[in-house]
């Protein structure tokens, strides 16, 4: 009898963390590594929010609490949803979780059976695809194109729907592309779902980047469209927009209180509850007016960085990069670089076993890291199924302008270093 359960072979990962081992190897060699890999704001959580939680902790508010979340925080979330989406929800529909990742797993465990089809964007957050395969569902990725700003149309969604569809995942603004679904997109998508899907088909609306939009855009949600609140698991949290990644504050709004009760039960069976003193800081993020200024300053900084880095990337031979509309990533096409450096030929020369461990973009990713001290993520890190022939890198612009400029300068140098790449493949032997 094997030690490990068979299903673990279907569990994916988030390579932004996994590549940390390679980064540490480079650091141990004395390299200065510029980290474009992690999706975490380089801003600190606001002092006024920190103080709320410190005061609560010092007052002894550190015990168990309602596994669904404290009442005041759930009410603040319900108020936020009403003001931002125009839809009334009750605190009993709200479940507080340690970050916005648990609702992904909870959703799959609650609604999806083996053999059910799950439609999701690719490239997209890798944990979507991980859970699809882990629960034995059938993955149905919608391949996003740079030609459309990494959005997709209602017609494209319709082409992926069948009688076996059980879950549809939407993410806007998007990780890794920065793509945004417009209100018109969402309205058309809602029409398709109403027309083509059974009432028991659920939508997972990942809106964790709802506060990070550029060019004066406002956030639009599928949750606001007719007939969608009763079908949608709406998820967001504090990690990205409030720079509170380590606080682990996320939340889900469920279509019904019965479904919320299931998520509460899953909390009880896993994390018990989110610390109440942290939740009080989360509540203040929605209720203290000074938070608006803090968020605005951060988004303005991200937009300035975007406006510098996209033209800089497009000036590099072999690179094309779309202008993202939200989040804090750029997602350049590096097919020309792979061709220029001879990466395609090097990839084809690998053994079949080695090819399963990497991609042409993955080889470029490691070359940039091990020889130039620039940590990025390849396209396959954001959904491997159907990603063949797509050659992109994700760079997080949640870095100082100095680091961004130094990193882009290193990439410019790397794209002319074909001999360096050839020697790198011979010397490092990362895929043997």
Describe this structure in words.
This protein has 432 residues and is α/β, with parallel strands linked by helices. It folds into two domains: 7-36 and 293-417, Aspartate Aminotransferase, domain 1; 50-288, Type I PLP-dependent aspartate aminotransferase-like (Major domain) (Aspartate Aminotransferase, domain 2), CATH 3.40.640.10. It has helices at residues 15-18, 20-28, 47-58, 71-85, 102-111, 126-134, 154-159, 183-196, 257-270, 276-287, 290-314, 335-340, 343-348, 352-355, 360-372, 401-414, 418-428; strands at 34-35, 94-97, 117-122, 138-143, 165-171, 202-206, 232-237, 250-253, 329-330, 374-375, 377-378, 393-396. Strands 2-8-7-6-5-3-4 form a seven-stranded mixed beta sheet, with helices on both faces. It has a three-stranded antiparallel beta sheet with strand order 9-12-11, covered by helices on one side. Helix 4 runs parallel beside helix 10, helix 5 (102-111) crosses helix 9 (257-270) and helix 11 runs parallel beside helix 16 (401-414). The longest helix is centred in the C-terminal third of the chain and has 25 residues, at 290-314.
Which residues sit in consecutive blocks of at least 5 with pLDDT less than 50? none
Instruction: Give the overall pLDDT as a whole number.
Output: 96
Instruction: State the shape.
Output: globular
Number of helices: 17
- CATH-level-4 superfamily name of the largest domain: Type I PLP-dependent aspartate aminotransferase-like (Major domain)
Number of domains: 2
> The CATH topology of the largest domain is what?
Aspartate Aminotransferase, domain 2
């Amino acid at each position: 009898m094997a030690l490990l359960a068979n299903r673990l072979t279907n569990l994916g990962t988030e390579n932004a963390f996994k590549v940390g081992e390679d980064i540490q190897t480079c650091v141990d060699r004395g390299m200065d590594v510029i980290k474009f890999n992690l999706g975490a704001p380089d801003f600190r959580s606001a002092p006024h929010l920190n103080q709320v939680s410190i005061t609560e902790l010092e007052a002894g508010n550190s015990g168990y609490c309602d596994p669904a979340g404290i009442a005041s925080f759930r009410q603040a979330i319900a108020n936020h949803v009403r003001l931002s989406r125009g839809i009334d929800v009750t605190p009993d529909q709200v479940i507080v979780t340690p970050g916005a990742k648990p609702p992904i797993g909870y959703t799959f465990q609650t609604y999806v059976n083996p053999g059910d089809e799950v439609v999701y964007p690719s490239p997209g957050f890798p944990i979507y695809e991980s859970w699809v395969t882990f629960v034995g569902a059938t993955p149905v990725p919608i391949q996003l194109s740079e030609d459309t700003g990494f959005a997709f149309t209602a017609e494209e969604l319709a082409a992926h729907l069948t009688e076996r569809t059980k879950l549809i995942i939407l993410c806007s603004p998007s990780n890794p592309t920065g793509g945004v679904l417009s209100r018109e997109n969402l309205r058309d998508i809602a029409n398709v779902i109403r027309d083509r899907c059974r009432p028991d088909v659920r939508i997972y609306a990942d809106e964790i980047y709802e506060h990070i939009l550029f060019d004066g855009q406002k956030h639009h949600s599928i949750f606001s469209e007719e007939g969608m609140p009763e079908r949608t698991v709406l998820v967001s949290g504090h990690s990205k927009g409030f720079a509170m990644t380590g606080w682990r504050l996320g939340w889900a709004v469920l279509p019904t209180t019965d479904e919320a009760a299931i998520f509460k039960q899953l909390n009880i069976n896993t994390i018990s509850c989110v610390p109440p003193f942290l939740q009080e800081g989360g509540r203040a993020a929605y209720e203290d007016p000074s938070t608006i200024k803090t968020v605005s300053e951060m988004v303005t900084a991200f937009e300035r960085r975007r406006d510098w880095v996209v033209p800089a990337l497009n000036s590099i031979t072999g690179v094309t990069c779309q202008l993202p509309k939200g989040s804090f990533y750029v997602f350049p096409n590096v097919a020309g670089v792979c061709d220029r450096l001879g990466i395609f030929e090097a990839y084809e020369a690998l053994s079949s076993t080695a090819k399963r461990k990497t991609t042409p973009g993955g080889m470029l990713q490691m070359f940039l890291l091990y020889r130039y001290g620039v940590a990025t993520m390849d396209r396959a890190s954001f959904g491997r199924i159907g990603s063949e022939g797509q050659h992109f890198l994700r760079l997080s612009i949640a870095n100082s302008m100095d680091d961004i400029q130094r990193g882009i300068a290193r990439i410019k140098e790397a794209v002319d270093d074909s001999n360096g790449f050839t020697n790198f493949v011979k010397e490092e032997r990362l895929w043997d």
